[in-house]
Amino acid sequence: MSSDQELLTEQLQILNHLHYTSLGMLYQGSEIRTNRDNRDKRFNAEIRALDTVAVLLTTGEPNDVTAVTLDKRGKLELVIAKNRCPTYADDAAVRNLISLLTNPAIDDPEDIFPSIMTYCLKNINKRQLQLHESLSQFLPTVKQVLQQYSPSLLPTDDELPNLAAYLCFTHSDPTMDFNDIIVNIFQFCLTHSQHPLDSNDKDASYKAYSALCLGAHVLSHSQFLNKLTCDSQHPTWQQEAQKLKQRLLKVHQYCFGIRPLVLRVNRLFQNREIPYRWVDLSVIPYYGEKKPFEISPSFKEALLHVPVMDPAQTVQNIQKKHPSMFQQPWLSSIHTCIHAEIQIIIDLNPPTLSTQSSFNCNGPQEPRAIGCSERSCFCCTAWIESFNCQFSTQWRTSGYHNKPYTNWALPAVAYDMDGEGKSRIDRDVLRKVEIELVDVLEQFSDESGRELERSITKESLKKLKAILSGLQPYY
Ligand SMILES: [Zn+2]
User: Fold this and answer.
1) Quick check: 30 pLDDT over 80?
2) Which branch of life, at top level (predicted)?
3) Integer distance in angstroms from the first to the last C-alpha of the chain?
4) pLDDT tens digit string along 246-255?
5) Measured in angstroms, how far is the CA atom of residue 366 from the centroid of ligand 1?
6) I want to staple 445 with a disulfide (CB 3.0 to 4.6 A). Which of 262, 274, 317, 407 is the partner?
């Protein structure tokens, strides 16, 4: 009999497989959601600063996702986790960043960027390339939209913040009309995002990158793009605009995220020392590098394990409608890890030996920010929501994209154990993944065609949102 982890991994792999082989839009674009609470400016500023720290401590290598928080229980301390085990180079990067942030002579991105460039180069170039792709794809749509667009009657600096700085920097004609300005900024960003940065010429790289960031800043804060991200009348434009906005913000995080971070560090750590530690997960038995394990050797065999009404019939229906899905490569050897944001929560809320309550928690708690180098996945979102619901905590990351990552490891920590000695928080995640998978599969195997498949996908996402917003424990 398969373990909970094997069952979960296989189900996540099926969801991934459906995503990669269908032309539908499962889990893409429009599902990026922010957790920022606009009413709480201090909390938003903290999570933004922590997000920037996490990004500055991420290489861009596969599976290098970083999460950070501030342990405020005693002396303020930075706590850091990665999806993988940290290396000496990672620790050196932390010390380097701290020495930069606490250096009184430094208050500008220009002072920090060349130093962090070597460690973060891959991630910076990856983000820049993704932005370039989005800009190229979206430009034809933008030209089409501009034909019908009327700028709001706001002052120009509200419609296009920092436009004056952009026009001055690019020596552009300040008398251009609105449509020409938008196309001009798009083309400027396209040009400046086409070449990867070169760590051998850091000054030139910084100049090129900061120019791109200026264009990205104006565009990402423009009313024009904001309106498109909210335009539910045109879902395709809306999705593309949301994706583009995310990518613009991700790129300019390396420039515009730094100054507020330095100011915050100066305020919080006036003695110019930032104590830090990596998470300590010794509370988890067998924690450490997890060995790869095997799931079903084929997509078809994995489908037969899903508890739909009639698994054999479901397989037959999907095979008939989507034969290519059964030809695509299927990964059966899986390496899992406890995702970084979950490690942070476990570290800050170590479970006790009691089976009734997992840690000393006295009623509702203040929101607690976890900065992440990327948005939270489906399982992390479900686990954090369930944990918060169960223990009245308010752990928050800055947002989620809801992708079902196959490498997600069940923490299997002794939180709120059931009669079988299993964590109810983990069980919530297992249950939510299974509900989603059964729902998606039943609709995939429906007799109708692709158009229906797309609309049903939206329905299933609605259901998913309902599950994730309600998140009542299932017992
Ligand atoms: Zn995750």
Assistant:
1) no
2) Eukaryota
3) 24
4) 999 999 899 9
5) 23
6) 317
